[in-house]
Amino acid sequence: MKIAIGSDHAGVQLKAAIVEYLKKKGYEYQDFGVCSTESVDYPDQAAIVARAVANGEFDQGIIICGTGIGVSIAANKIRGIRAALCHDVFSARMARAHNNSNILALGARVIGPGLAEAIVEAYLEAEFAGGRHQLRVDKISKLEEESQKEVH
Ligand code: RB5
Fold it and tell me: Domain range spanning residue 87?
């Protein structure tokens, strides 16, 4: 599994902790930055990771900002992305099992590194259940296609 990881300035420290975890566990990953606390715009960082996943280069993405909200909203604007903001282990597992999520979003100002690590572990180790959940995920894709044709 190839993992793309990125954050804005608010997520730098938590990203570093998760990168250490990925390294320790032997995951193949690429860190798309940022690596300093100088202020950046979270949609830019979310888009870099989301596009790397959407184009098939990476299987999963992890994106981090202060709350996780901004990066998840932005990533979900990229076609084919199902980003899930998870701050508990159960949601992380379900995001993969039921929603076939391909990006995990985390808020560095919401949770600490210990819980974040447990969430990442649950998320990466879970598997999509398929079956009726595939039909529902297909409906999400259909909504995405339809919304691109809609004129407001
Ligand atoms: C940056 O201050 C903060 O707004 C950002 O990290 C994130 O929380 C946005 O959703």
Answer: 2-151
